[in-house]
Amino acid sequence: MSIPGLDAWLQSPQGSYVLEWEQAKIDALVADIFGFHALQLGLLQVDYLRDNRIPLRLKAGESGLVDVRCDLRQLPFASASLDLVVLPHVLEFLPDPHQMLREVERVLIPEGQVVIAGFNPLSLWGLRRYLPGQREGLFPWNGNYLSVLRLKDWLALLGFEVDRGNFGCYAPPFEQSKWLQRCHFMEPAGDRWWGFAGGTYLLRAVKRVPGMRLVLPAWKERKARAKALAPITQKEANDNGQ
């Protein structure tokens, strides 16, 4: 998936501003997720799995420096084989983001987790796309931004439960570093007073499987049954003794 203007934007003050906030938040979100296999889809120039301790961490995409080259709407992984999937700014640049979420649900194990980063349409960043004279066709203004409410609805339909979320990047989308720095005071103010209006958001969701039951090894199950029956056996012995 080639996105026009992405590489240049990542090197700009705007890109640094967004990536600094997202990297810190995603580092904290993925640090306590364990398992065997983790996957990052999107923004492959940035390592969003660097603080995760899962042993096998892969990047997949349609081009570039990837571990697995594939169509993001048809992931070449077995069903229920991944513990964590990170989607940084990929859904809003796909023609069928819901299909990609269905694939993510398929490849995640029960209780597997997905972390999603997106641009908020209900923010100054979202409004900028409609300004007169705005350059079209360049990242990040060429995306189809998804609102948090819509994304939560999609995740719920697929059996996910959102357990954590954050908004950030409240400063207007200035192109010059000095103006972004002057608006730094808006970060704590935004979290407190208008938390829904951050330029970007993060969601972490867990794949829930209704009726799932933990299957224990046979020796553990026998031990658990013996422990449960012990008080009853002791009570019967005491009754007989009396």
The major β-sheet equals: 7 strands, mixed
How many E strands? Answer: 7
**Span between termini:** 79 Å
Helix content: 25-40%
Strand % is 15-25%
Rounded average pLDDT? 85
| Radius of gyration over C-alpha positions, nearest whole angstrom | 23 Å
Molecular structure report:
Strands 3-2-1-4-5-7-6 form a 7-stranded mixed beta sheet, sandwiched between helices. Strand 4, helix 3 and strand 5 form a beta-alpha-beta unit. It has helices spanning 6-10, 13-30, 97-107, 124-128, 148-157, 177-182, 186-193, 218-241; strands spanning 37-41, 56-61, 68-69, 82-88, 108-119, 160-168, 200-207. The chain starts with 5 loop residues before the first helix and ends with a helix. The protein is 36% helix and 20% strand. It has 242 residues and is α/β, with parallel strands linked by helices. It contains 8 helices and 7 strands.
